[in-house]
Amino acid sequence: MPGPLTLALGTSLHTLDIGGVQRSFRVYRPATLTAGPAPLVLMLHGGFGSGSQAEASYGWDAEADRGHFLVAYPDGLNRAWAVGGGCCGQPGSAGVDDVGFITAVVKTVTRETAIDPTRVYATGISNGGMLTYRLACETDLFAAIGPDSATMLGACAAPSPVSVIHVHGSADHNIRYYGGPGDGVATIDGPPVPAVIARWRKVDGCATPVTATQGPVTTSTATCPHGRAVVLVTIAGAGHQWPGAVPKPAAQRLLHLDPPSTALDATETIWQFFAAHPKSAA
């Protein structure tokens, strides 16, 4: 059962022992949160990032204030996540159980505050976005996932249906939109993004997608049974970045990110999708 609202207002810091390893995460609780069960969004940083960096960079605290939900910002070991296929960094090569860690974060937050189990979501950029796909492949915790500048690596034999919104720039050089090896620090050789989305449409049993273009943004939306949807948002000419983020050149160099596109606010777009797609009972 969801617990009372015991989390402190604002950002609080937490640790978990996962197999003898101390793992950390942050939780943002907005003052606007009511006493009833609230949605929970997991925001997963990219390679070389951290939970605090993600909280400062992508606007999720402000979106939580407006949308009345909690946000958790977990930390990857050595600033990376294990997402399948040997990727990425030390966690990938060592086979760290990041799915187990994120699952434990959700369970811990649920014990400490009133979380609606039908409205738990995961989003992330780059390596963190790739982890959202791994979570969808290996758990049924999430109502929807929202990867940005990401792909899906490793086996995904029998995933449960889940709503998906994927945001990607057509000129992404780290994780290429049309597949093949990227030229980032970690050479990500993933499938074409449209093929990843087609796979999830098949998993969800979706109808033929409807495509609309406004300026550089093309949105392909497939409706699926039981209220689910699979959406691909493509930004023409955009690189490896979080659209709508505040430009921070020094951080972008550290994280190997391109300047953020101004064609879209990814945080607002992903949250609106999440809010419209709670977990189905079927």
SSE diagram, text form:
Elements lengths: L9 E9 L2 E9 L8 E7 L6 H7 L2 H8 L2 E5 L14 H6 L3 H15 L2 E11 L1 H12 L5 E5 L14 E7 L10 E2 L7 E2 L2 H12 L5 E5 L2 E7 L5 E7 L13 H7 L10 H11 L6
Parallel strand pairs: 3-4, 3-5, 5-6, 6-7, 7-12
Antiparallel strand pairs: 1-2, 2-4, 8-9, 10-11, 11-12
Description of the structure:
The protein is an alpha/beta fold and 282 residues long. The two termini are 21 Å apart. The protein has a ten-stranded mixed β-sheet, with helices on both faces. Strands 8-9 form a two-stranded antiparallel ribbon. Strand 1 (10-18) and strand 2 (21-29) form a beta hairpin. It has one domain: 3-Layer(aba) Sandwich (Rossmann fold). 50% of the residues are buried. It has eight helices and twelve strands.
CATH third-tier fold name? Rossmann fold
Supply the number of structural domains: 1
The overall pLDDT, averaged over residues, is 94
Mass-distribution shape = globular
Give the biggest beta sheet. 10 strands, mixed
Task: List low-pLDDT spans.
Answer: none
Report the total helices.
8
What is the CA-CA span between the terminal residues?
A: 21 Å
- Biggest sheet: strand arrangement: 1-2-4-3-5-6-7-12-11-10
**Residue share in helices?**
25-40%
H and E string: EEEHHEHHEHEEEEHEEEHH
Strand content: 25-35%
| CATH hierarchy: architecture | 3-Layer(aba) Sandwich
CATH class: Alpha Beta
